[in-house]
TrEMBL record, chains A, B, C:
It catalyses: a UDP-3-O-[(3R)-3-hydroxyacyl]-alpha-D-glucosamine + a (3R)-hydroxyacyl-[ACP] = a UDP-2-N,3-O-bis[(3R)-3-hydroxyacyl]-alpha-D-glucosamine + holo-[ACP] + H(+). PROSITE patterns: HEXAPEP_TRANSFERASES. It comes from Devosia honganensis. This is UDP-3-O-acylglucosamine N-acyltransferase. It holds the Pfam family LpxD. Belongs to the transferase hexapeptide repeat family. LpxD subfamily. Homotrimer.
Length: 343, 343, 343
């Protein structure tokens, strides 16, 4: 469910009317129940009977079969996986209609988050006692800050953000679309809740997929200077309890980082990377998106992780492999090149 | 031509007098026309009859032969390539004299841009209607901002910058020496128009080459959180229409990025990289400078591009090669190492 | 010695009492001189007779033998290396007790630096003449700024920081725990003096090692946009005279960079990297920590330096090797893969 603290909802609206507004009257006309009310948009696994959800690719078939969504946009290949209780809107390239619908239901979301204006519905900020604000701190409507939290000078906190107790937020940070737990530390220049890099029609129109999710920063997380954490596209980007992130790290939309991980400087996690508990990432590690690094894994500096790895993996290289294979390959290479003249 | 909105010109001055002030009386004495007026400094291809330009290396011979510059500083090897209409000042290491002249004609440019002081000549900022400024936004003299543009809290916009209509500039950004088109989006912490990394006498004096160019950000460009775009040394760094740049990306001086490109997080483009239209760069891609990536190319994550590639290239690896060669090499390596004991 | 301009000292205290407060009465009880006063904590090589220091690993044996510290915490293996004048507190995992002691003697250091509050002991800031402050600049107690220095808008300067003469600090920077020389240039978004990434009990408790050092930025250093320089854990992170650092570079705690180095964009130096004078690092270079790159070395872009290299080295590759070996290996690889079918 899109969190309306961060993204204002322009509905509810009947499905038929919504499709007409999206310029798809032919789809509206084909509906058995055009009056079905849409009260929000959600991910398949969290959607309820008034929600609309998307299943564009085969990888979502499993989630689709179990969804509680009232309405699903699906590509023809997934038609058979729509559960009995859901209304299916079947079309090619459902992503495009989905983006149209997001723009209609949560209008101008990029600008609305940054402008942080017109959110009087959220009410005045609420501070518990012993909150310390540095000079020129800017606090949006509806912000809540817990007891004992310190906010450094010139930091900007956007509409609806909540920050727990005893947090330490350094100077010159920006926080949007996020809920922070207790004892969180953000060092200077951190950006939380920026938009993920999600586009349709790559290299031609580069149309933005609206970024309507949040960032959840759990207790005792620490994030280093000038690091960036994008909000979910839908749903959440999550940093688990006790996880520590170094400087200049990029965490893409919908990443889920477990508890007590360490992520060294200049690492970059592409969208929907799952890092389980207690994983160590060395400096400059990168990941392709939509993969899982199992609990307790150790990924050496500069590794580029390109696929799932089980718990306890020890990885190195680009593309990353088991570190024993990495060393073996390096040794083979060294031996081979001995036959060559020194360049 | 150096844009005097951003870099104040201390001239005009006669060429002979300029060389004397630069401590090169012997060069002044050798001039046939020491009274030739210098009204600005420019790149070879854009220079006019009152401009001074530089041709230090063989790679500029072609531009030199076609230049309209009134005066050119050239190394002896390029003497024959100076066109008939231009006055040639011939010397070894012309870069050094060129830097001296830039410092004389555009004094203290590093500091002048950052101080943004003493630019009363630019007049008061001009806003079209419906411009929204967040708290603590700082606007320099001569700034112009178009209708419907939103500027987030604590952002700093330097002297002379122009921003088009319906732009969305997030919090805590810094913009100097730049012209932005319409519908541009900058996410939080973006730095536009910082100085390029250009030095003489590497590793010894590390003398700065004055950075007197601009950044041109065309319509519908979007730039991710904490990314940096350096201004040209002379001339412009350009991001073409519809190009989207992710978080923590570095774009060096005088890069020219085409239209509708996508540049994923943590990529770094060295100075004078040319990226043609519709190119996709994966995460963590790097380029050596002074090279061209042809239109529609796809460069996979972590590739290090070291030379020109034609349109439609598909690249991977470091140094980057055709992706089929990359996979072939990886396969050969994997096969070879099977003979080795696992490390 | 921890610099009390940046980190307030809660002592002095007798060693016995300190160990009791740290919950180690058994160690206190075993002391011959429990009344020994502790007036500060220091690195082995700089410690004096009232200082406490740590020697946890074999690599510190040499420093331990020469230390002037009054008290040393050592692991059993190092017991024999404690010099005659020092009191040895011998225990397993001395790092953990050391962290406890740092927290007792310099309490809540993360928060204290960021809050910059309660430091009235430092007195009002002191400016020489001709200091120019941009709008919304925030200056902590005890800051000193030299003649002719310019500070850009929205920059935040923490308690006790000193800045020399004729420096140019751009907008939106953050400076803590640092002493800057003369003619230093920081571009926009630079973070100086943030905490190093130092933890105990990796991947489980992730306990922070208090970061109580400083950053020393010598004359004529220049640091590019959005780069980050962590303060020492104990002791200093140092950038030597005339060294120039590009955008988006990370410099870890206790790095020591020599004079007149050039460090190109997106390089990352892990903790305790020593870079000697006149070294050139290309873009995207990384280093493992605790190693030395000898004077005048040239490290090509993307190299990952994993061990010591002597003066004048020319390095490439990941892991980095002599560039001639790098090219030889690349050639062998290219030759080998010719036998494979193109992928």
């Amino acid at each position: 469910m899109v969190d309306t603290r961060f993204h204002r909802f322009a509905g509810p609206i009947a499905l038929g009317a919504l499709l007409v507004r999206a310029g798809r009257s032919e789809l509206a006309g084909a509906l058995a129940a055009p009056g079905q009310v849409i009260s929000g948009v959600s991910e398949l696994e969290l959607a309820g009977p008034d929600d609309l959800a998307l299943a564009a690719q085969q990888g979502y078939a499993e989630d689709l079969r179990r969804t509680g969504a009232g309405v699903v946009l699906v590509s023809p290949a997934l038609r058979e996986d729509v559960p009995a209780g859901a209304i299916a809107v079947v079309l090619d390239r459902p992503h495009e209609l989905f983006a149209d619908i997001l723009d209609l239901l949560y209008p101008a979301s990029t600008r609305a988050v940054i402008a942080a204006a017109g959110r009087d519905d959220l009410g005045a900020p609420i501070f518990e006692r012993d909150v310390t604000l540095g000079a020129n701190v800017v606090i949006g409507p509806g912000v809540e800050i817990g007891r004992g939290t310190v906010i450094g000078a010139n930091t900007v906190i956007g509409a609806g953000v909540t920050i727990g107790r005893n947090c330490t937020i350094a100077a010159n940070c920006t926080i949007d679309c996020a809920h922070l737990g207790n004892d969180v530390v953000l060092h200077s220049g951190v950006r939380i809740g920026t938009e993920g890099f999600g586009w349709l029609d790559f290299g031609r129109a580069n149309r933005k997929i609206p970024q309507l999710g949040r960032v959840i920063v759990q207790d005792r997380v620490e994030i280093g200077a000038n690091s960036t954490v994008d909000r979910g596209a839908l749903g959440d980007t999550v940093l688990g309890e006790g996880t520590k992130v170094d400087n200049l790290v990029q965490i893409g939309h919908n990443c889920r980082i477990g508890r007590n991980c360490l992520i060294a400087a200049m690492s970059g996690l592409s969208g929907s990377t799952i890092v389980e508990d207690g994983v160590l990432l060395g400096g400059g590690v990168g990941t392709s998106g939509h993969l899982t690094i199992g609990a307790g894994s150790v990924v050496h500096g500069r590794a580029a992780v390109t696929k799932d790895w089980p718990a306890g993996s020890k990885l190195a290289g680009a593309p990353a492999q088991d570190i024993r294979d990495f060393w073996r390959e390096l040794a083979a290479m060294r031996k081979l090149s001995k036959g060559e003249k020194r360049g």
